[in-house]
Amino acid sequence: MRGDVEWGSIPGLVRSAAEHYADAEAVVEGRTRISYAELGARVERAAAACVASGVEVGDRVGIWAPNSLDWIVSALGAVSAGAVLVPLNTRFKGSEAAYVLRSSGARLLFVTGTFLGTSYVASLRRAAGEGSGGFGGSGDGPLPGLPALEQVVVLADDAPADFRTWKDFLAGGEGVGETEVRERARELDGSSVSDIIFTSGTTGRPKGAVITHAQTLRAYEVWSDLAGLRRGDRYLIVNPFFHTFGYKAGVIACLMRGATMIPQPVFNVDTVLANIAAERVSVLPGPPTLHQSLLDHPARDTHDLSALRLVVTGAAVVPLRLVERLRGELGVGTVLTAYGLSEASGIVTMCRRGDDPSVIASTSGRAIPGTEVRVEAPLGSPGEVLVRGFNVMRGYYEDAAATAEVMGEGGWLRTGDVGVLDAAGNLRITDRIKDMFIVGGFNAYPAEIEQLLGVHPDVADVAVIGVPDARLGEVGKAYVVRRPDVTLTADDLIAWARREMANYKVPRAVEFVGELPRNASGKVVKGELRGL
């Protein structure tokens, strides 16, 4: 049955999972193990707290935190209260997070305390606190630069003044009964917006793809079916929850099948190996770099990886040798590749179980049911990939102009990706019109990085391209024109960039040039840079 018809909304799915898989293990986090019944109760409690705090249907609620049980509970609680979820990239710096919060008009934010040595609260305060002239406005909330943001809840045991702890927030919902929470959920239907996934485009401005409950449920029921996810599977979710691959192909898919979620906040190959062995992990989606590092780890054979049966990968070229090694050396029964983008609910094409390994390695499979894919070129030739179907976003949030740029006649979404279709309908992505490159599974957009680097007082002009990297697949390289009479070095600029932008965006190499090659209309000719 179609997911949107079966469950109606995400809170409907959560309740269904709590009832049908009540005693099954839902989430494992360290020593904490909770059943689906308990997960349902926790989500309902979080939803009650959201209602008590004034969240209304359609309000945007941000979440800026690594993969964790608290992420799952707070996010599903907000959505169950009728809110629209706005996940924030954990690699963001404060100014990047503040931009998304301000653009979405988020009223409530769930934020981690400290992650990877960074205090998210402190960085957000610096970016949007007192005197944040770049953010404008004033309000009664904890951050004057974000007037719409009324409350910040820290997913920790302590929080600064004007912010709330997770425990205090949950306690605030104790006066809201189960009936009220369920009534709120009944106000939602398939057409209600479930989340806004912000993705940076070539303009350098993050844009929010608006996705509904029906799109989410239908797409990930299809994903679960094609992947063969099943009850009893134990799913190590390394893909970040702020990304569709982590939240929807992870949390939502597990809820559909009663699989056990094992969230891992940071990709560390030693931790992955230990988790697979200790928890008898059977499902491990992720970018090819994850699986490659697993296969090549010197201590791999000291861990029991025999439970691993399903791998879904994508986001980059997948070597045939990787598919063969996963099957041959680790005995993984199913290895699949897929292609998607936020503007199409995160999934467009997917291989099918039983496909030849060469098809899995060289393509991203065929269009999923309910969608169409075409390429603006003759069969077998490269052209822009267009998508039409139930999975295509409602548009970019409050950005009609940007929406019009990608939504063509007849409901076709222009993906900005270049691909080739074969006679069987398998899609092979060959290039990116938008010049996007992928750093260890993270999408990096040159225009956004160029905009950030252009703020540096010693930079007169800059262009960024992706270059091959043995470990990360691709990394950024910046071609920089210095302002006259300055002594800016490559090390200086890279160090500055590390303070100003998420790590995956930071160029790993800087080359200084007298001028950038431009065409008659003034656009940088990046093909010439790649040939330098």
Topology:
Layout: H1 3-7, H2 10-20, E1 25-29, E2 32-35, H3 36-52, E3 60-64, H4 69-80, E4 84-87, H5 94-104, E5 108-111, E6 114-115, E7 118-119, H6 120-128, E8 151-154, E9 164-165, H7 166-171, H8 178-186, E10 193-200, E11 206-212, H9 213-227, E12 234-237, H10 244-257, E13 260-263, H11 269-279, H12 288-296, E14 310-314, H13 320-328, E15 334-339, E16 349-350, H14 357-362, E17 366-367, E18 371-375, E19 383-389, H15 400-406, E20 413-421, E21 427-432, E22 437-439, E23 442-444, H16 446-453, E24 459-469, E25 473-482, H17 490-500, E26 509-512, H18 526-530
Parallel strand pairs: 3-4, 3-5, 5-8, 8-9, 12-13, 14-15, 25-26
Antiparallel strand pairs: 1-2, 6-7, 10-11, 15-16, 16-17, 18-19, 19-20, 20-21, 22-23, 24-25
Helix pairs in contact: 2-3, 2-4, 2-10, 3-4, 5-6, 9-10
Report on this structure:
With 532 residues, the protein is α/β, with parallel strands linked by helices. It folds into three domains: 3-210, Rossmann fold (3-Layer(aba) Sandwich); 267-370, Rossmann fold; 437-530, ANL, C-terminal domain (GMP Synthetase, Chain A, domain 3), CATH 3.30.300. 33% of the residues lie in helices and 24% in strands. The chain has 18 helices and 26 strands. The strands form nine sheets. The protein has a five-stranded parallel beta sheet, with helices on both faces. A four-stranded mixed beta sheet has the order 14-15-16-17. The protein has a four-stranded antiparallel beta sheet with strand order 18-19-20-21, with no helix packed on it. Strand 24 (459-469) and strand 25 (473-482) form a beta hairpin. The longest helix has 17 residues, at 36-52. It starts with a helix and ends with a helix. Mean pLDDT is 92; it is low at 130-138.
